[in-house]
Each structure stands twice: as structure tokens, then as C-alpha cells.
Design brief:
By secondary structure, the protein is an all-alpha fold. It has one domain: Amino acid/polyamine transporter I. Helices cover 72% and strands 1% of the residues. It is built from 22 helices and two strands. It has a two-stranded antiparallel sheet. A hairpin with a 2-residue loop joins β1 and β2. α11 crosses α18. The relative contact order is 0.17.
Length: 557
């Protein structure tokens, strides 16, 4: 099996030292494990609850599914294809395909994911605490008891810093061990976690009055379709769920070969991911309605409860999952296994986020992993300390950087547009794939026209609505438009500065490595053996598919 690509083959082929997935199962569960976690279990139920009206949440679910096909899947195709072909994270991809002057776009994408990773490790620490609490103490049986547990730890305790440090440290150690460790760990974690989630889902449906929760979840309040916040929440949540725009899949795709069907991966995995999110919301809504209806609450009161579990509803899952298990005989044991599996699932995503940051530093400056991993972990811990000590700050970071995923999607659109959508579709995908689905020209239209127009209109509509609705939209400290703009501007300026420093000191050619390879291949005359000039000058072969893996080519710096 050929692990390199036309861009990376040769004695200095980075894929030789990087390793690759040994099995399709390991690759699939690693990609699922990369994103299944907080986005599905913690974030989706609370975002769905926050966007319910008096009539239900169906309007949010429909828009959320719409963006799976109009945004997330097309973006993931780009990430998988570029990562597999270039064997790089976003920085290396932009440098290789569209030139070093565009590296700042890759820096931006990596920075957005890293910013999410800084508070994601705090969510890992919450799960680790709940694992400990389920082992040592009885499960709560009422909303008041369970909320007190969440508030005393997540909002009032400084002990959260300890598991926060543990999560970042464990992630760093796993990254140093490499892809084989990631594959083995995910091959165990992901199936167990999904089995526990499916069991919890089925059990929640058997609770008295659970049908009321499901009926409410799948009923609509169509008036909310006028609210741009609901639309942007649905779009950013789908990106958060599936990993679209994170850049994480480029890092994982760097470990794959042309035998791994990226169109299948970028379609099936996010679809399954969304199904897991929907199951999580159904489980939560069924549990809340069952417990509160049995306690005599009406629908209005229950909706108020489901929308106010901590700041911005951050405690919804952590408050109600323990209550769900308290209704089961032997539920304490199941709760322990659930929070153990959830801790490991979140840790798997945190590993993916830090792996992207580490790989970006490798692509940018050639740092060795043994040096850069501790630095990345330390920075993640320090920046995440604010979220660990102040839940409102965590909410702000989630607000700012989840919306930034849509801007990261624009960088992917720009990549395809500059490289050439037809060339990208044919060379990087259809001609460089074995046993994969064919990608039709419809994908080009979606990436070039539909996706940028839909998100541009959405962001513009949201910005105008924020200015008109909120008197303090310019308050940098709150969850406001200005808070987003200030933090995004700072990161963009730093990204451009990094790009400037790189070009100034690396003195790299301005021509993309791909274009130099294509130019070399057309100017060289192949010999009979293809090796008469020595191994360092072995000729590139061409075929009906264009440039193929006939000889070594190592892009220069």
C-alpha cells in the first residue's frame, strides 16, 4: 500500500515517520471519536433547549439538519481531501496548494480550534468530577439536588483546575505516543460510549411521561424562524457537532491513504454524529419532562427549567443525566461507566484539538514534538484557566469561537476557489481515491456559490439583528457582537503577523509547492528507467489522471 502522495514521496516523505491507521475500523472510530463528545452530549441539548419556543424545538432541528447538507458535509470533503493529499494540517495545506502568503488562513483555522480546546479541557474536568462523585456519593433524585452538585463544583470551586490540568497532560502524553495509541484507545472508547448512550436513550423512553418530552422536542414554534440567532445557532452547532471548519479532520486525514474513501467518511460520519446528537437531546428532554411532570409541573414550568440549568444552560446534561440513572436499578454503576466513557470521549476530542496545534507548529517551523507538545499543553491550560474559574467566561468563549467556525469554513472555500474547484475535485479526490464514491460537479456549485452566499447572508442578518436588538451590543465583556469582533480581529492580526515573520525569515518561494511540482513534471524528459540521474532526480510520471505517484517529490521550504 502506498502511503505517500505525489507531493510527499521520496526519502524525506513525512508519512514514513508519521504512521497511518492500520485498519478501516480504527480509522472510522478515531474520526468519530474525534468529534463525538461535548458537542453531542453537552452542547446540542442545551442549544436545542435555548432555541425552543413555547411550542417546541422542531424549527431548530430542521434548520440544523439543513446545514448538515448545505454546509458541514461540503466543508468536511475539503478537509479530508486536502489533509490526505498534502499530509498536513491547515497551515501546510494552504502553503502547499495556494502558496505561503496564505499561511495565515491556516493559522486562523488552527487558532480557532485551539481556542475551543482551551475550554474543552474544562468540560473534560467536569466529567472527571462527575465520575468521582458518582463513585463516592449517591445519585441525586431531584433537580434541586443535582443542580446544587453542578453549581458547587463548576461555579464555586477552584478544584476544577486539577482535572483541567490532568486532561491537558493526558492529551499531551497520548499525542507523543502517536497514531497507533490514538487508534487503539478510540477502538475501545467509542463503541463502549455509544452502547451506553444507546442504552440511556432507550431507557429514557420507558420513563413515565417521557412521550411528553419527545412530543415537545418534535413540535414547532414557527415564529422563531424569524430569529437570526436561531439560524446561526443551528449552523454553528452543526459545525461544532461534525467538526466542519475545525481543521481537525485534516490532521486525522494526514494518517490516511488513497484506499480510505474520504467521500464516504465525510458523508457517513457526520450523519451518524448528528444522529448521536439527536439521541442525546431526546434522552435529556424525555428525562426532564418525565421527572418534572411526575412532580406536578406544567409544560411552561418545565420549559423554564430546561432552559435555565446554569449560565446559558451549561449544566443541562450534568444536572439531568445523573437523575436519569437514579431511576434505574443498578443505575449508580451505569452512571459511573457513563461518565467514565464520556470523560474518555471528551479526552479523545481534546487529543485531536491539541494534535492539530502540534501538527501546525511542525508544519510552520519544523519544531520537534517532544518540545512543542509540553508548550501547547501549557498554553492550553493557562488560557483555559479563565473558563475553569468562571462559567460565564466559558460561555463567552463558546459563543465567540463556535460562531468563528463559520469563518473558518470561508477559509476552506477560498482554498478551493484559489486552487481551482475542478482541479481540486478531480486531482485531490476522484483521481486519488480507491473504492470511493464519485464526487459530482454539484459539490463545486455548493462550495463556490451556495455555501458562501448562505453563510454571508446569515452572518450579516445576525450582525444587524444584534445591533438593533441589544442596546449594549458594543460591550466587549458580554456575549455580544463586539466581543466576537474584537477577539476575532486580535487572532486574525496575530495570524497575519505569523505569516509575515514566516515569509521574511524562511525566504520560501512564493509559488505553491503543488504548482512547482506540476511545472517540474512538464519540463523534465522521462528516461527509460527513470533513474539515470540518480535517486534524488527520479522522474515524475504522468498519466491520464495527471500527476501521479511515480517518483519522489519533496516540496522545498
Amino acid at each position: 500500500m502506498n502511503e505517500g502522495t505525489p507531493l510527499t514521496q521520496g526519502e524525506n516523505d513525512p508519512s514514513k515517520n508519521r504512521g497511518h491507521f492500520k485498519s478501516k475500523f480504527g480509522m472510522v472510530v478515531s474520526c468519530i471519536g474525534c468529534m463525538v463528545g461535548a458537542g453531542n452530549i453537552w452542547r446540542f441539548p442545551r442549544i436545542a433547549a435555548n432555541n425552543t419556543g413555547s411550542g417546541g424545538a422542531l424549527q431548530f432541528l430542521l434548520v440544523w439538519v439543513l446545514f448538515l447538507f448545505l454546509w458541514s458535509i461540503p466543508m468536511l470533503v475539503i478537509e479530508y481531501a486536502a489533509g490526505r493529499y498534502c499530509k498536513s494540517a491547515p497551515i501546510g495545506i494552504f502553503k502547499t496548494l495556494v502558496g505561503p502568503k496564505n499561511i495565515w488562513l491556516g493559522v486562523w483555522a488552527a487558532a480557532v480550534s485551539t481556542a475551543i480546546g482551551c475550554y474543552y479541557s474544562v468540560l473534560c474536568s467536569w466529567c472527571l468530577y462527575y465520575l468521582y462523585h458518582c463513585i463516592v456519593y449517591p445519585l441525586p433524585t431531584t433537580e434541586a439536588q443535582s443542580y446544587d452538585i453542578f453549581q458547587s463544583y463548576a461555579q464555586e470551586s477552584h478544584w476544577v483546575l486539577l482535572p483541567h490540568a490532568m486532561a491537558t497532560t493526558l492529551s499531551g502524553v497520548t499525542i507523543l505516543w502517536g497514531v497507533k495509541t490514538i487508534e487503539k484507545v478510540n477502538s475501545v472508547i467509542v463503541p463502549i460510549f455509544i452502547l451506553l448512550l444507546v442504552f440511556s436513550f432507550i431507557w429514557s423512553l420507558t420513563l413515565p411521561h417521557a412521550s411528553l418530552g419527545l412530543k415537545f422536542l418534535f413540535s414547532a414554534d414557527w415564529s422563531l424562524l424569524k430569529d437570526p440567532a436561531m439560524w446561526i445557532d443551528a449552523a454553528s452547532q452543526n459545525a461544532f457537532d461534525t467538526g466542519a471548519g475545525w481543521g481537525l479532520m485534516t490532521s486525522y486525514a494526514a494518517f490516511t491513504t488513497q484506499d480510505n474513501g474520504i467521500i464516504k467518511l465525510s458523508t457517513v460520519i457526520p450523519s451518524c454524529n448528528n444522529l448521536i446528537s439527536l439521541m442525546s437531546a431526546m434522552t435529556t428532554f424525555a428525562t426532564v419532562f418525565s421527572v418534572e411532570t411526575s412532580a406536578g409541573a406544567n409544560q411552561t414550568e418545565i420549559v423554564d427549567i430546561i432552559q435555565n440549568s446554569g449560565p446559558a444552560n451549561t449544566g443541562l446534561t450534568f444536572v439531568w443525566i445523573p437523575i436519569l440513572y437514579s431511576t434505574i436499578t443498578g443505575g449508580k454503576i451505569l452512571a459511573i461507566f457513563f461518565f467514565l466513557a464520556l470523560s474518555l470521549a471528551l479526552l479523545s476530542t481534546e487529543i485531536s484539538i491539541l494534535e492539530l496545534a502540534v501538527k501546525s507548529c511542525e508544519d510552520l517551523a519544523g519544531f520537534k514534538r517532544i518540545i512543542i507538545v509540553p508548550i501547547v499543553c501549557a498554553v492550553t491550560f493557562l488560557i483555559g484557566t479563565g473558563s475553569a474559574l468562571n462559567t460565564k467566561y466559558l460561555v463567552n468563549q463558546d459563543y465567540v469561537w463556535s460562531y468563528a467556525l463559520l469563518l473558518s469554513g470561508f477559509t476552506l472555500i477560498y482554498l478551493v476557489y484559489r486552487f481551482g474547484s475542478g482541479k481540486f475535485r478531480s486531482i485531490l479526490i476522484n483521481e486519488y481515491s480507491n473504492n470511493d464514491w464519485y464526487l459530482p460537479v454539484l459539490w463545486e456549485w455548493m462550495v463556490k456559490y451556495i455555501a458562501p452566499i448562505e453563510v454571508s447572508l446569515l452572518l450579516g442578518w445576525f450582525a444587524i439583528a444584534e445591533i438593533l436588538k441589544k442596546n449594549e451590543w458594543y460591550n466587549v465583556a458580554g456575549d455580544t457582537l463586539m466581543s466576537c469582533l474584537v477577539q476575532w480581529t486580535i487572532v486574525i492580526c496575530l495570524s497575519i503577523l505569523v505569516n509575515y515573520i514566516y515569509i521574511k525569515f524562511q525566504k520560501t518561494p512564493s509559488t505553491p509547492a503543488y504548482d512547482r511540482m506540476a511545472s517540474d513534471s512538464t519540463s523534465m524528459e522521462p528516461t527509460a528507467a527513470g533513474k539515470e540521474n540518480g535517486p534524488d532526480h527520479e522522474m515524475l510520471e504522468t498519466s491520464q489522471n495527471g500527476i501521479t505517484a511515480g517518483g519522489p517529490y519533496v516540496p522545498t521550504n
